[in-house]
Design a protein that fits this description.
single chain, 250 residues, mainly alpha, 0% strand
């Protein structure tokens, strides 16, 4: 356990000890601020009896942050180690492959969560500037936070896997972004299916990130969604472990 703690601290400090980490944090706050401003503008002076959190997934800024933050955070996890020549040194240390992978994942994940901490202030801002003292539903807010947390878990694992496949941080980021965007677009494909293909519609809806976030933003916590993201997180962490372990066969 101490090895994982040490490696996690090393990975997390790597984000805060370089300029790129603060650029990422600033970019997230800028885009999420745009999302908040959009919601305030839409709701100002209007009656709205549904949870205000429901408006966030309807803004482009919100999805832009979710789809872009993970690639830029995780692209350095293994690709940078390989390009700088420190990968073999790390992997010959007295730690197992799974410990390295889990520590890389946790370090990136904690940084991801840090980037979203300012969202805790959004309910107070919304109540102040939309004049809706009862519009912020605590249950929906917690549910939305759970959704963002689960999304981050999956994307951090996916990003670690992509980074383990290449020496190029750019390639790792593009691969993570491409897969995430494809999953996001599945929600739109579901609506394009003809009526006689209901089973395709069901499959697309089941794996659609857009549909999942809509549920979370309205306060609906579906155990199937939770299991879906936890399963994908475990799958990609497993694949990452196998990917870095493949060096032993070369």
């Amino acid at each position: 356990m101490s090895e994982i703690t040490t490696l996690t601290r090393r990975e997390l400090s790597g984000h805060f000890l370089c300029l790129r980490g603060y650029i990422i944090l600033s970019g997230v706050q800028l885009l999420m601020g745009g999302s908040l401003l959009t919601v305030v503008y839409l709701l100002n002076g209007r009656a709205y009896d549904l949870p205000l959190t429901e408006k966030f997934p309807q803004t482009e800024f919100f999805w832009l942050v979710l789809l872009m933050i993970s690639p830029v955070i995780t692209m350095r996890t293994f690709a940078q180690e390989k390009s700088s020549g420190t990968f073999e040194t790390l992997m010959t240390a007295p730690v197992s492959d799974i410990q390295v992978v889990f520590a890389k994942f946790l370090g990136s994940y904690f940084f991801y969560l840090t980037a979203f901490l300012p969202m805790l202030l959004y309910p107070f801002i919304l109540e102040r500037y939309t004049h809706e003292s009862v519009a912020v539903d605590a249950g929906a807010l917690v549910s939305l936070g759970l959704g963002i947390t689960l999304f981050g878990s999956f994307f951090m694992a996916l990003g670690c896997f992509a980074s383990s496949l290449t020496r190029s941080q750019i390639v790792a980021a593009v691969l993570t972004f491409a897969i995430g965007t494809c999953l996001f677009m599945l929600g739109y494909f579901a609506d394009l299916q003809p009526p006689e293909m209901k089973w395709w519609h069901y499959i697309f809806q089941h794996i659609s990130m857009l549909k999942h976030m809509e549920d979370f933003s309205t306060g609906i916590v579906d155990s199937r969604h939770i299991l879906y993201y936890l399963s994908l997180t475990a799958l990609f962490l497993f694949l990452t472990t196998k990917s870095i372990g493949s060096r032993k066969w070369k």
